[in-house]
Amino acid sequence: MLATDKLAAHIKVCPVAIGKLVDFDAKSDKLYPLDLTAANTALTEELVADTASFSRWIDKKLADNHCRYGIGGYMEHRTIYTRSTLFDTEDEPRRLHLGVDIWGEAGTPVYSPLEGTVHSFADNDNFGDYGPTIILQHNLDGLTMYSLYGHLSRESLAGLADGQAINTNQQIATLGNATENGRWPPHLHFQLMLDIGDAQGDYPGVGRYSRKAEYLMNIPDPNLILRFSGFPVTSV
């Protein structure tokens, strides 16, 4: 069974309290769907390679469309990862985005939408990497699931401890700026996993397109938790 279908079926039978990931007023705030695939010809290699230019491009998209956040990315085959050798491999570069990105201002509060505990955390300080990252573990009435929060501020890691209890809607972090978040325009990478093996403070957020079927068995669509209007859940 696909991970999205498994999580959806479990939530239907065993409802859980789901809170917010970021502050959002559905009556007044808007989301802008960002297309970071090859179909978006405005995203030249020169643009995405320069963090300041890339940031200005995103900021303008949000401002021109009167949107609080940009959003998108689950199982999106992207071109932007040419900006870092971190995503290169000998046989096939990593280009498939496995979570959802929420693009907004540095300092934006990030909340845990589910009750859980701190599984692990780390500062993945490489160009193009997550920067500060938190992984939470959740027990959804018998189903274990993990949530990952990447591109955070360094102060988000202060005072954390493995096993620390986290409540639904508890603020756990803020978005980092480009000097601390892996050299990206400010945004949150949010990802769900049913199994993370022995991972600690890090888990791939971008994979090989040829392994998409494998990822779909373990990585549910985060829109099951986000529940933003206009962004339906998909399992393919």
UniProtKB/TrEMBL annotation:
PANTHER family, per database record: L-ALA--D-GLU ENDOPEPTIDASE, PEPTIDASE-RELATED
Keyword Signal: yes
CDD domains: M23_peptidase
Descriptive protein name: Peptidase M23
InterPro entries for this protein: Cell_wall_metabolism_enzyme, Dup_hybrid_motif, M23ase_b-sheet_dom
Pfam families, A to Z: Peptidase_M23 (PF01551)
Residue ranges of domain M23ase beta-sheet core in the record: 96-193
Keywords associated with the record: Signal
Entry superkingdom: Bacteria
A molecular function GO annotation: metalloendopeptidase activity
